[in-house]
Every structure is written in structure tokens, then in C-alpha cells.
């Protein structure tokens, strides 16, 4: 069944339904046990393997390298649909797809060719950038230092989303002189320990816990040529979250409609003998569905800006690239608060159309708000609004994404000025 037939609107391209068809069958299977997995904290290892076997990890990889060559709007359209089935899995793939963008935007090199091949063989990547503790923004306590002909890695990472399911971890560390350096670490290497200790109330199955590295041997070929990410990375990673929220909205709308349709008990002050005929109940259902529809439309519109940034990056035109990167960042930031507010509200008001029994854990309706609230807590939306306002009033372009940590000296000085 296509997006159009479900009134979610046309896909982002004429070929989208053809591309999506085989994955929609897998999404339907994933959706079957979404509530049970959430209640039982059952990691979706099998479900992620289904997607991997179907080539989902290669969505953005060029066709000549064994991928599907999707545009960014097509890619985000599929992420919305996967998130409707299970947003944990979308989040688990987030770092993998970000690394894929790194590779396809990288200058031609042996390193790029190697990773195009590995990605084409459906090898997958988890995240290893965030650290806890008192480290300054832009620095790493994790160390990657020279050791003979290779390197030795020691440290600990948190928010290592997707790493339990992945073949590799892409991470940032500090070298012998304290400079940032990037590397790929095999998840099965001696000295690597990955824990499922993420205890958040939402996105519980995204494997976002701790990874420890104890004297892990890293060869030269696994060192990234540059620690820098692709130029539109900030907007890209944020839009993955927005697509996830749009998918959560669709799932909430679908669950609500089903519960209302099946509900037989009514209140004495109601307007009909069944909830399915009560206009006030139907109004709530319509509001939730409308929020999901608009969120998806906004996310796909922002994806068009990212596509322009990608194409500008390929063009070699520095001025075009700078403008497209800036606009992509702004268009995504302009979407953040709107989508977040719509889905958080929708995942709350849906209970107004149901009775107290809707709060049963076995129904899993609470997972929509918990997942949405957790996703929305990444990269606080208040800063996105301020960035957009600063551009609108003062013409200032967004500052680079600076990560998270204890304030660096320049930030402390700015705050005291």
C-alpha cells in the first residue's frame, strides 16, 4: 500500500514506491512485535539483520559500489516509514548513515575506495563520539596513540548508538599531541567491550550505552584521513531525528485509530453509542493524524535542502557549497521546534480519545511519547529557534556544531563578558 493510498501524500520521487516496496514488507514484520520488544526490552537484533540482508544499510551508497543510490529525500522518506515501525532501529542506524555520507563526500583516495567496498558488502557502523565526565567541548579523553607500526586505543565512550548491532565503531579520540583524530574500530576486536546499559525511558532498544576500549590495536588503514565530518552533517543528523519523530507520529496515529475503532465502552456524556461514531473522539484522531502528516511533509521538504547541499558539495563550487550548506542547516533548524511540538502534543492528546485502559503497559501507547521526548532532547530545540532568529534579524549564519561537554575557555570568557 502506497503513501498516497493511506493519505500520507505522494513519495519524494516517482520511483519511491517501487524502491520502498520490498522494505515495506520488512517494516510490517518489524511492527508486529514493536510493543512486545519495548515491554520486554528485547533488542531488535533479528529485525536489524532482516534490514541488513535486504540492503537497507546501502540506501545512500552509489549503485556502482553496490548501493541503491537514493537521493536524500528518498532516503528520509524511508526513514519515516521505518520509524513508524520501530524508531529504535532508525536511531541504531543513524551513525552508519552519517558515516556513509562521510565516505561518499570524501575526496578520492584509497581510504575512500576501501570503505565504499566495505559498505557495499553491507558492513555497518556504530557511534563512538560522545563522552561523559568533565571533558571540555571539542576535546576527547579517549586516546589513540602511536604504538610501533600501528596505534593503541584506550578510553570509554557513551551514547554509542547502534554499536551493539554493528561491525565497526566510528569514533573520535585525541592523538599523542592532543589533536582530534578519527578511526574505525572493529566491534569484535580484542579489548573492545560494548554494554547495553542505556537506561533512558525512551529509545531503550537503540543500544546507546557504553563502549570501553582497553589497549585496542588499530592499524594505519583504519585511521580516517581527516577528523572532520561532511559539511552538512549537523543538518543531516538532526533531520534523522525529525524523520524519526514524523514516523513516531504516524505510528501513534495508526494505533489510536485502531483502538478507537475497536473500542466498545463509551462514557455517559459521550455523543454516540460507539467511540468510532463520536465526533469529538474523531476530532482527536484527526488532530493526531494531521500532526503526523505535517511533520512528514516538513521533514521531506528539509531533505530537499540537504540534497542541494550534497549536490553542491559534489560540484566543487566553493561559493555554491557554502550557501547550500548554510541553507540546509537553517531549513532543518526551522523545522525542529515545529515537528517536535506537533509530535509531543500528538503523543499526549491521543489518550483523550480513549479510556483509562489505554494506559496499560501491554498496549504500549506510552512508548510514543517516551520515544519522542527522548529524541527531542538531543540538540535542544531552543538553540535552533535562536539560530533561526539570529539569521532572520541579523543575517548571521549558524555557527558550527560544537558537540557537548564542559565549557571551553573561550565560552567561559564570553559568558563572563
From TrEMBL:
Q: In which pathway does it act?
A: Sulfur metabolism; dibenzothiophene degradation
According to UniProt, the reaction catalysed is: dibenzothiophene 5-oxide + FMNH2 + O2 = dibenzothiophene 5,5-dioxide + FMN + H2O + H(+); dibenzothiophene + FMNH2 + O2 = dibenzothiophene 5-oxide + FMN + H2O + H(+); dibenzothiophene + 2 FMNH2 + 2 O2 = dibenzothiophene 5,5-dioxide + 2 FMN + 2 H2O + 2 H(+)
Q: What is its EC number?
A: 1.14.14.21
Residues forming the Acyl-CoA dehydrogenase/oxidase N-terminal domain are: 29-120
Report the residue ranges that make up the Acyl-CoA dehydrogenase C-terminal domain in this protein.
241-378
Looking at the record, the residues that make up the Acyl-CoA oxidase/dehydrogenase middle domain are 140-216
Q: What class of enzyme is it?
A: oxidoreductase
Q: Which InterPro entries does the UniProt entry name for this protein?
A: Acyl-CoA_DH_C (IPR013107), Acyl-CoA_Oxase/DH_mid-dom (IPR006091), Acyl-CoA_Oxase/DH_mid-dom_sf (IPR046373), AcylCo_DH-like_C (IPR036250), AcylCoA_DH/ox_N (IPR013786), AcylCoA_DH/ox_N_sf (IPR037069), AcylCoA_DH/oxidase_NM_dom_sf (IPR009100)
Answer whether the UniProt record assigns the keyword Nucleotide-binding to this protein.
yes
Give the highest taxon in the source lineage. Bacteria
Pfam families to which the protein is assigned, alphabetical: Acyl-CoA_dh_2, Acyl-CoA_dh_M, Acyl-CoA_dh_N
| Localisation | Cytoplasm
Any single GO molecular-function term of the entry would be: monooxygenase activity
Stated name of the protein: Dibenzothiophene monooxygenase
Record the organism.
Devosia yakushimensis
Source organism phylogeny: Bacteria, Pseudomonadati, Pseudomonadota, Alphaproteobacteria, Hyphomicrobiales
Amino acid at each position: 500500500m502506497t503513501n498516497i493510498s493511506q493519505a500520507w501524500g505522494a513519495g519524494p520521487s516517482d520511483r519511491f514506491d517501487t524502491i520502498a516496496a520490498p522494505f515495506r514488507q520488512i517494516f510490517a514484520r518489524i511492527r508486529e512485535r514493536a510493543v512486545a520488544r519495548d515491554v520486554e526490552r528485547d533488542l531488535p537484533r533479528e529485525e536489524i539483520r532482516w534490514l541488513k540482508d535486504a540492503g537497507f544499510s546501502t540506501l545512500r551508497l552509489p549503485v556502482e559500489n553496490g548501493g541503491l543510490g537514493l537521493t536524500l529525500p528518498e532516503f528520509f522518506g524511508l526513514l519515516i516509514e521505518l520509524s513508524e515501525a520501530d524508531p529504535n532501529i532508525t536511531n541504531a542506524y543513524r551513525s552508519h548513515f552519517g558515516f556513509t555520507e562521510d565516505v561518499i563526500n570524501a575526496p578520492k583516495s584509497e581510504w575512500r575506495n576501501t570503505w565504499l567496498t566495505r559498505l557495499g558488502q553491507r558492513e555497518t557502523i556504530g557511534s563512538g563520539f560522545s563522552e561523559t565526565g568533565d571533558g571540555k567541548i571539542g576535546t576527547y579523553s579517549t586516546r589513540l596513540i602511536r604504538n610501533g607500526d600501528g596505534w593503541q586505543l584506550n578510553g570509554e565512550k557513551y551514547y554509542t548508538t547502534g554499536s551493539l548491532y554493528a561491525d565497526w565503531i566510528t569514533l573520535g579520540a585525541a592523538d599523542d599531541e592532543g589533536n582530534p583524530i578519527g578511526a574505525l574500530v572493529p566491534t569484535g576486536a580484542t579489548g573492545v567491550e560494548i554494554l547495553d546499559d542505556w537506561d533512558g525511558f525512551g529509545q531503550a532498544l537503540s543500544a546507546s550505552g557504553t563502549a570501553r576500549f582497553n589497549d585496542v590495536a588499530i592499524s594505519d588503514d583504519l585511521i580516517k584521513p581527516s577528523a572532520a565530518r561532511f559539511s552538512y552533517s549537523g543538518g543531516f543528523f538532526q533531520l534523522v531525528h525529525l524523520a524519526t519523530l514524523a514516523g513516531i507520529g504516524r505510528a501513534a496515529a495508526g494505533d489510536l485509530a485502531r483502538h478507537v475503532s475497536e473500542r466498545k465502552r463509551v462514557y455517559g456524556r459521550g455523543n454516540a453509542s460507539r467511540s468510532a461514531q463520536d465526533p469529538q473522539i474523531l476530532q482527536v484522531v484527526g488532530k493526531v493524524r494531521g500532526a503526523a502528516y505535517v511533520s512528514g511533509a516538513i521533514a521531506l521538504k528539509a531533505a530537499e535542502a540537504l540534497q542541494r547541499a550534497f549536490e553542491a558539495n559534489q560540484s566543487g563550487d566553493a561559493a555554491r557549497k557554502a550557501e547550500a550548506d548554510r541553507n540546509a542547516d537553517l531549513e532543518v533548524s526551522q523545522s525542529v521546534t515545529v515537528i517536535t511540538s506537533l509530535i509531543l502534543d500528538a503523543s499526549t492528546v491521543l489518550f483523550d480519545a480513549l479510556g483509562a485502559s489505554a494506559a496499560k503497559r501491554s498496549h504500549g501507547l506510552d512508548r510514543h511519547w517516551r520515544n519522542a521526548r527522548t529524541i527531542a532532547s538531543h540538540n535542544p530545540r531552543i538553540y535552533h529557534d535562536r539560530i533561526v532568529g539570529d539569521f532572520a534579524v541579523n543575517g548571521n549564519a549558524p555557527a558550527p556544531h560544537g558537540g557537548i561537554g564542559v565549557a571551553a575557555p573561550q565560552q567561559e570568557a564570553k559568558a563572563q563578558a
